[in-house]
Amino acid sequence: MAANVYLTQTALRERDHILSYLAESVGNVSAAASVLDDLDRLIEVLEAFPLSYRVSEDEALAARELRVAPCGRYLVLYRVIGDDVYLEHMFHGSQDYARLV
User: Fold this and answer.
1) CB 98: neighbour CB atoms within 10 A?
2) At what angle do helices 9-20 and 29-48 cross, to 10 degrees?
3) Taking a C-beta distance cutoff of 8 angstroms, is the pair 88, 13 a contact?
4) CA atoms within 13 A of residue 82's CA, in its CB half-sphere
5) Residue 78, Cβ neighbours under 10 Å: how many?
6) How far is CA 17 from CA 10, 68, 83, in A?
7) Cα distance between residue 101 and residue 38, in whole Å
8) Could you report the per-residue pLDDT of 17-39, keeping only the tens digit for each?
């Protein structure tokens, strides 16, 4: 089954914030490019195997059926609905993402 993968507006904003921070604030354009490469690879995996990653261990997020996928140093929260995958959030792995959602 090939799934369609979509980034929500929230995920797009979070991705853009990460890229802007890395490229402009830190001055590391290659790190920003690496994040995009990691995200592209994750999307390829989710297109082929949308249920590859576990449902969040956080009770509130699990109730919303949000799954957690590693993406380099970041974590992506996503939901599978039928043949569609919605990337909903993107956080640095050190962040307490359950508190931020």
Assistant:
1) 17
2) 150
3) no
4) 4
5) 25
6) 11, 20, 28
7) 22
8) 999 999 998 899 999 999 999 99
Q: Which residues of 45-57 are buried (b: 16+ CB within 10 A; e: fewer)?
A: ebeeebeebebbe
Cα separation, 94 vs 91, in Å, equals 8
Fold observed for domain 4-100: YaeB-like fold (3.30.2310)
What secondary structure does DSSP assign to 42-67, as a single string?
Answer: HHHHHHH-TT-SPBPSSHHHHHTT-E
pTM of the model: 0.91
Max Cα separation, the chain? 40
